[in-house]
Design a protein that fits this description.
The protein contains five helices and no strands. The protein is mainly alpha-helical.
């Protein structure tokens, strides 16, 4: 028995193929055609990231997505935190419990989510530094004529 054909939604997510992965467009390295979803405002935001952070187009696109996702997750965290704290609202006798819930939820956020966003942003920054300073950056880097 052969497998059923892939639903249209999944086929589009896989680049129009039946599960053999995304297909790159004609431009080097591009996986998604930007014209399919990117409006002028988004294009301007990505170009701004390129100019202000020294990113190439794909790096700026990754940072843009990362920033949007971070804001969405943070908003969801705020909503969850409000729900967790609502039973204690206006109750002075539950102040300790309220502070404990707030502290635990905030700690969980930074431990389980935020640190990963920081690492991904750092990785993008390291790409820029490596591209701009291929021989190294900082105190370890010394031009050849300064060594003697």
């Amino acid at each position: 028995m052969s497998p059923a054909p892939m639903p249209q939604v999944l086929r589009r997510a896989c680049g129009g193929h039946d599960g053999d992965g995304p297909q790159r467009s004609q431009k080097k390295g591009r996986i998604v055609e930007h014209s399919e979803w990117m409006n002028e405002q988004v294009r301007e935001e990505i170009e701004s990231l390129q100019h202000t952070h020294g990113l190439e187009e794909e790096e700026a696109l990754a940072l843009w997505h990362l920033s949007k996702l971070g804001r969405l997750l943070n908003d969801m965290r705020d909503t969850d935190l409000e729900e967790d704290l609502s039973p204690f609202e206006g109750r002075v006798d539950k102040m300790t419990e309220q502070q404990t819930v707030f502290f635990l939820r905030t700690t969980e956020w930074y431990t389980n989510v935020y640190q990963h966003f920081t690492a991904l942003r750092r990785a993008l920054g390291e790409r820029v530094l490596q591209r701009n300073f291929p021989d190294g950056w900082g105190s370890k880097y010394r031009p050849q004529d300064e060594e003697d």
